[in-house]
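User: I'm putting together notes for a lab meeting next week and I want to include a structural view of one of the chains we've been expressing. I don't have a solved structure, so I'd like a prediction I can at least talk through. The sequence is below, exactly as it appears in our construct file.
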Amino acid sequence: MRVVAVSLSKQKGEKKVNQEQALLKENWGMEGDVHADGTHRQLSLLALESINAMRKMGVDVNPGDFAENITTEGVSLHTLPVGTHFLIGDTIELELTQIGKECHSGCAIAKQVGSCVMPKQGIFCRILRGGIVKPGDSFRVLA
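Assistant: Thanks for the context. Below is the predicted structure for the 143-residue chain, given as structure tokens.
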């Protein structure tokens, strides 16, 4: 299991841009990301497997296109219970706080194919211990 992409955006309503690395700030969010605000939705994650499901429907999508901060590979994130903890690398610890979200009207992907994975398969986490995250980092489910 690993981190595939790290993405952020400076304004709401934009696709997130992939980064070489980013700083996750404890109890806040990803530094420089518009959604960093210290709420229970400090960080959004989506599995590459969910993105690939949309690709099979003929949609040209990539990590960050669903406004997720971190794209993972190797674990079905949305099947884990709220309260699950994750470890990125050796130090960053996250806690799953929400599964899915209400899709805002006007989502280009939902308009194009009639559905979108983020409302049901995206997850949100609180950052318990921060640090630098980058593509290729290990991603583990703790409990």
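A couple of points you could mention at the meeting. The longest strand covers residues 92-99. The radius of gyration is 14 Å.

User: Perfect, that's what I needed.
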